Structure of 4-nitrophenylphosphatase:
Amino acid sequence: MDSIPVNLQDLKPEGFKEFLDSFDHVFSDCDGVIWTKGPLAGVGKFFSLMKKHGKTVNFVSNNSLRSKENYEDRFREAEIENGFDYLTIPSIAIAEYLKSVNFNKKVYSMSCTETNNVLKSYGIEFKEGPDVGADYYEDYLQYMKDDPEIGAVVMDCDFKVNLPKINKATTYLGRPDVHFLCGATDRHVYYAPGAKTLAPGVFTELVAEEANRRPVVLGKPGKAFGEFAMKRAGVTNPSRVLFIGDMIEQDVGLGRATGFKTLLVLTNTTKETMLAHKTIRPDFYAESLCSIVPLLEK
Ligand SMILES: [Mg+2]
């Protein structure tokens, strides 16, 4: 079990200075930390003060659903300059990964439109679908035919996930040289207290189990994703990174996997839930980014 997380608010000035001196780079999650429906209070101030203290600021999100324009608008509303230029998301990590292995076949994509757009922008060809399956099991053999053109299976947010697609992905992954990449591994997305839906992680796990393969996780909390974010930011020492997030599994989990220091903001989690977590605890916690602003101004 990790040690007891430190409440930044409880630190004396010298303790807070020690905290500030313990990292050079801030990597921050977006949804639930910087904005919910709209920007959260004080976030622009928080990041500009961090920069004033000599820290580099980067952003890491599991959300590949937003377009570049939507991200740019959100960063602007949050008063964060050029935020998108410093953002790492799974779709970009997946495209960069394929580029790095000189990928020259086609992707079978079980993803959202925006992820497919990113693949396209990298010149990576992909196949997808079908969105509707056959009515009888005997007609499913057509989805179990291998396609030699496919050299990678990519799984992220696919709102039209279905049996034909799962059969296709599993079939292609039967060839050991077919890359298996995924973005977000979240098993659920929460709409409101008590209202949740299944999320991509459930379907990725299903395909992984059926194909007896493990995906390269290019989303939080995958170590490969954390290392990719570091590479993009030109950071070599993970222990000099402070990762800020609102989710224990994804954000603190990524920090643990990659070797970052972690700060949990309690915008979506209570202190009790944080302390009750069986395996992962953050190094630090705070109510919100806004609550840290007065400490940075001292
Ligand atoms: Mg979040």
Q: What stands out?
A: The pocket of magnesium ion is lined by residues 29, 31-33, 245-247 (CB under 6 Å). The chain is about 35% helix and 20% strand. The chain has two domains: 6-62+221-297, 91-217. The two ends are 34 Å apart (CA to CA).
